[in-house]
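Give me structure tokens for this 215-residue protein.
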Amino acid sequence: MNVKLAERIDDLKRAGFSVRYADPADVYEKGRIHSAYAHPFAYDETERPFVEVDGAISEDWAGQVSFWEISNFRSLERDYGMAFFRVGYTGCDGLGFFLHSVSDRLINTVIGLKEQYPVYDESDLSELEYEAAHESFSGYLFADLYSDLPEWWQEVADEFTREEIEQGFWQAVSEDDFYPECSGNDVIWGDSAEKFLLISLRNLKRKSLGRPALV
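Here you go.
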């Protein structure tokens, strides 16, 4: 093992990373390795050391991965592309890289995410949270709010298209300079979502009657 590689292994271990081993030819052919097939030491001379990035996980089918972990996953893949391969788990993937084949910049970036600040790209995280907020309303949230509305408000909602209601909802959110809290993998609206839905319905009804919207 050359001196530079040994230094990289020491640096990563000091930062708390587990160094594992796999055959690069096998991994690059498939673009991935299942975590269960990674070895704690080299079985033969073809296997090389790799580490998995902490806090960079693909979106999972169970919805257990935090927004910042998904953001790190997609942002690091975007910026470093071929340096990474996927480390497979049940329902999601991590990002791994062989220590002999990457730049010092990537090594330092990964260590910094673990030791200093866990978010790689704040702008991407904001974009992801924005997407999640919009998906929450167009998905489960509207149905939940509609079912809790008094009958009269439900009748008002039935007069308009879902697109019209949603547009009015987001206009009310914007005018109130409000944004839901995103924590872990949850979008937290509190009581505000009902307020913005009622504002949307009220203004749509007033518009249908030829009256100006209320601020």
